[in-house]
Design a protein that fits this description.
single chain, mainly alpha, 64% helix
């Protein structure tokens, strides 16, 4: 199974499924130069580069420097330079990634600043404008940038899961239901009353409640599948979920 295939919620048992998740693949590969490990790591980096950018901006780097540093760090990861000492005990991807970034910034910033801009190859296409807009609307906060990295990570996780669920609903021809039901997933105060929604969707009240329940169930499945890509075993999923939710809604 390829890393892209493991993005889907599997039908097999949790332990069998877990052997195919992205971070588990990276840790189990043994050889950091293996194509399987590189592909799995690239999927993760494409998903979670925005928290890296926000962390670097919190360190008072300019948008331009933050873009360069994020790209350089990802290039460093995906050429295998940071994987040489990985072992199955290295912990969660979120923690390892931040520790690796801190080390990289301390060791590499002067070298990168001395290089001619544009000399590095683009490894992952970054939407710099989107990243900066997201950073600009984050609350001004003087707390440890590492804490704010975790908040951005949690929000990125939720955004990815919502995007996957939306895509599923559209493929199923349920775009209208998605537009009306999505507010119930995160307890949005703008969610319409069930009775109003029933009239709008030509459903019974019990039908609306069942639709919301099913959507929440699927959201939970996708959320846990996404988290499973970033931890080392199935037993850590629920703990990581609780932890990240406290970071997303403080």
């Amino acid at each position: 199974m390829s890393p892209d295939e493991s993005e889907r919620t599997p039908s097999c048992g949790r332990q069998e499924w877990f052997a195919t998740t992205h971070w588990s693949v990276v840790l189990a590969a043994g050889d950091p130069a293996s194509q399987r490990a590189k592909e799995a790591l690239e999927v993760l980096c494409r998903a979670y580069w925005r928290p890296l950018y926000s962390f670097i901006r919190r360190l008072k780097h300019s948008p331009t420097d933050a873009q360069d540093l994020t790209q350089a760090f990802l290039a460093n990861l995906l050429t295998g330079k940071s994987l040489n000492h990985l072992s199955p005990e290295r912990g969660r991807f979120r923690s390892w990634l931040l520790a690796s970034l801190k080390y990289f910034l301390a060791d590499e910033w002067d070298k990168i600043r001395a290089e001619k801009r544009g000399g590095r190859a683009t490894i992952i296409s970054l939407d710099a404008q989107q990243a900066e807009q997201g950073y600009a609307i984050e609350p001004k906060d003087e707390r440890d940038p590492a804490v704010l990295f975790e908040r951005r990570w949690a929000l990125t996780l939720l955004e990815r899961v919502l995007g996957k669920l939306e895509a599923e609903m559209i493929r199923a021809g349920s775009e209208t239901q998605w537009r009306d039901l999505k507010y119930y997933l995160l307890d949005d105060e703008d969610a319409p009353a069930y009775a109003e929604l029933a009239a709008r969707l030509s459903l019974s009240l019990s039908g609306v409640k069942m639709s919301v329940s099913r959507l929440r169930q699927r959201f939970g499945e996708l959320l846990r599948a996404e988290i499973a890509n970033t931890v080392t075993d199935a037993g850590e999923v629920e703990e990581e979920l609780r932890y990240l939710l406290t970071r997303a809604y403080w």
